[in-house]
Design brief:
Length: about 280
């Protein structure tokens, strides 16, 4: 999957006709730049090499700032609206918020996403209280590797559901603690993330978690194959190499493996751990 940054080749002007806000961290990751030719803010043009699957609390499918192309529910929470599909019910609002951070449209209102208009595939595993089961995460990841969207009609050419929906990235802004009692569930999640990468070419991106502790015992953050994202503190729009991590953010413990670490520290995991300027 190609890397797209906001250079003039892939850029369009940021729509400033309304009240649209641009998160301050966007400049730090080059999702928004200033055009050398015009001096105007510019963002990534609507070029979509892949969709993003958001495994979360559901998505408000009718939200005017989002390009939701498919949803599916993997828990038993009922929508209060009998005419609304369960995957389109987001009583928590978290899945909708995450989807906006990823792909909110560049149309003058709301917030600007990192890749404006990116196709979003919503996979609901959390309820309105933010709770869920590891088994629901496993079911959602397994479904992406299955070869039938509805369970009966095979996808053309035996494509996985991820391939059929052009999913190139899976986002998991959620986490659960791993102990001896939940190790089997965590290992199943990690195995599926590895299979998605190896069998379907899907990159997984996971939140480090918000406990201010080493992430080695958090799932999916500690999984070897996922790209784990920690948080930077304020001034995230400034290029500051000494910038500190956010106090709440989990982190990769580099000195040595914690004594009870479920997954050992490896050079590959270090390379798959990044810090993102998302606060503010």
């Amino acid at each position: 999957m190609p890397t797209i940054t906001c250079t003039d080749e892939f850029a369009v002007p940021v729509d400033t006709s309304g009240s649209q806000t641009v998160p301050t961290g966007m400049a730090r990751i080059m999702a928004v730049t200033t055009s050398a030719a015009t001096g105007q803010l510019q963002t990534v043009a609507p070029v979509f090499p892949a969709a993003v699957a958001v495994i979360d609390s559901g998505i408000q499918c009718s939200h005017p700032d989002l390009n939701v192309v498919y949803t599916k529910q993997f828990n038993d929470e009922r929508s209060p609206d009998p005419n609304r599909d369960g995957g389109c019910y987001d009583g928590l609002g978290h899945g909708t918020h995450v989807s906006g951070t990823i792909g909110a449209l560049n149309y003058g209102y709301g917030v600007l996403g990192v890749l404006p208009g990116a196709p979003i595939v919503g996979l609901k595993v959390l309820n309105a209280a933010g709770s869920g089961e590891a088994s629901s995460i496993i079911a959602a990841l397994s479904w992406l590797l299955e070869t039938s969207l509805n369970g009966s009609i095979p996808n053309p050419g035996g494509a996985t559901n991820a391939q059929q929906l052009s999913v190139g990235v899976v986002n998991l802004s959620l986490a659960f603690g791993v102990s001896s009692g939940s190790r089997a569930l965590a290992d199943a999640v990690c195995e599926l993330l590895g299979r998605l990468e190896n069998e379907a070419g899907v990159v997984s991106v996971s939140a480090a978690g918000n406990e201010g502790q080493p992430l080695n015992n958090r799932c999916p953050a500690g999984c070897p194959s996922t790209v784990t994202v920690t948080a930077l503190d304020q001034q995230q729009g400034q290029v500051d190499p000494s910038q500190a991590p956010a106090s709440f953010s989990n982190y990769l413990w580099l000195a040595q493996n914690p004594a009870d670490a479920m997954w050992p520290l490896t050079p590959d995991k270090i390379n798959r751990t990044v810090a993102a300027p998302g606060l503010g």
